[in-house]
Write a structure and sequence with these properties.
Keywords: Aminotransferase, Methyltransferase, Transferase. With about 400 residues, this protein is α+β, with helices and mostly antiparallel strands.
Length: about 400
């Protein structure tokens, strides 16, 4: 999922569209502040952008996650449970996903689309027994709930699990840190990328999936909100683990080539242009039957006029969202995410450019405050993914 730090989110509204008063807090709010977390407003909540204590700071937190294990509080994201008679068919009418091939505990990326093929949100879907568990972006969750409730039939129930917290533990030592703390019908090591199961974490019920949004091996952990601080203490007491803020979460996902909703995709961007066709399963591409399919299926067949690409930028200056991409003196695209890569020690970006230029090795430039920065189209991810996939050594 793509809900990472950017301080330009919209108004905080509830499910009925009414603006909420003030910025909300999450179960770990005092926990973050006690650890010298610098909190900012994000998606209507106070959340830590970085930790200011010893070993803190965005670059240090980024590199710690790449080499050890970072603990992220992502409780602002929406956790939903959808169930009822005919739920599989009902959900397939709303999402471009093939649920018939999703096993119990299986996790799959998908998209919530509008009738013109634009992306309303990207999300994760997990089969939980007879129902489905969805994790949606925090900034869009109220709109998502409204869209889903309007689209789903009356015999299908949507429950917002707003009394739960959500953590992400990411990095090459995440499994080593978490495994001693959990018990279940199977060992934690049996989970592979995009699979989940119920466990006891410190004796408390938890749903754990081997997934995340950093490109590293790791886990997403759903727990009762009332136990959030206790379980955060338990995890962060492990020597491999440090708390990590939204700043490093953003730089990690950018290195991993993972798009951020509201920036690299939105309701005016189709999945073909955004290079997100893996969110539309093969059967659905041939059968259609989902919102926006009349627009999207022809684009799959003939191609979109623009494409999301990665850019490696010369020098040390970063290009930020909104910067113009040039081919010579001709504007051919726009940067949607950009920053300095701590792992590569150079600036990188994602941008939409004309499809004929979306070829690895193409030389372009970026206009940053009147200065042209040389840039080269590059394959993504910028830093290789290290997911723990089934069958991998």
């Amino acid at each position: 999922m793509s809900d990472t730090y950017n301080n330009s989110e919209g108004a905080n509204v509830d499910i009925d569209g009414d603006e909420l008063i003030g910025t909300l807090t999450l179960p770990l709010d005092s926990w973050h502040r006690a650890r010298d977390g610098r909190v900012v407003e994000f998606a209507g909540y106070w959340m830590p952008v970085q930790y200011n204590g010893e070993g803190g700071g965005i670059i240090a937190e980024h590199l710690w996650t790449r080499t050890s294990a970072g603990f992220f509080d992502v409780s602002h994201m929406g956790q939903l449970y959808i169930s009822g008679e005919g739920v599989e068919a009902a959900l397939e009418a709303v999402l471009p996903i093939d649920l018939s091939t999703l096993p119990v505990g299986g996790v799959r990326y998908s998209l919530l689309l509008n009738e013109t093929g634009g992306i309303l949100d990207d999300l994760m879907v997990t089969r939980w027994g007879t129902g489905f568990y969805l994790v949606v972006n925090g900034a869009t969750k109220w709109d998502d709930i409204g869209t889903l409730r309007e689209a789903l039939p009356d015999n299908v129930t949507l429950n917002h699990l707003d009394d739960t917290a959500l953590f992400a533990l990411q990095g090459p030592m995440a499994a080593e840190a978490l495994e001693p703390l959990v018990t279940g019908e199977q060992p934690l090591s049996a989970l592979t990328f995009m699979r989940g199961a119920a466990f006891k974490l410190g004796g408390i019920d938890a749903w754990i999936s081997r997934s995340g949004y950093t490109g590293e091996d790791g886990f997403e952990i759903s727990v009762p909100g009332e136990n959030a601080a206790e379980l955060a203490d338990l995890i962060c007491a492990q020597p491999q683990v440090r708390p990590i803020g939204l700043g490093a979460r953003d730089s990690l996902r950018l290195e991993a080539g993972l798009p951020l909703y509201g920036h690299d995709m939105n309701e005016d961007v189709d999945p073909v242009s955004a290079d997100l066709l893996f969110g539309i399963n093969k059967r659905r591409r041939s059968e259609g039957g989902f919102p926006g399919c009349d627009v999207i299926l022809p684009l799959i067949a003939s191609g979109a006029p623009t494409r999301r690409v990665g850019l490696l930028i010369d020098g040390r200056m970063a290009a930020r969202e909104g910067a113009k991409v040039l081919n010579g003196d001709v504007e051919v695209g726009t940067v949607t995410s950009g920053g300095f890569s701590p792992s590569l020690e150079r600036p990188i970006a994602m941008a939409f450019v004309a499809s004929e230029l979306a070829v690895s090795g193409t030389s372009l430039s970026i206009d940053v405050r009147g200065r042209k920065l040389a840039a080269t189209v590059a394959p993504m991810p910028f830093v290789p993914h290290r997911y723990h996939r089934k069958g991998a050594a």
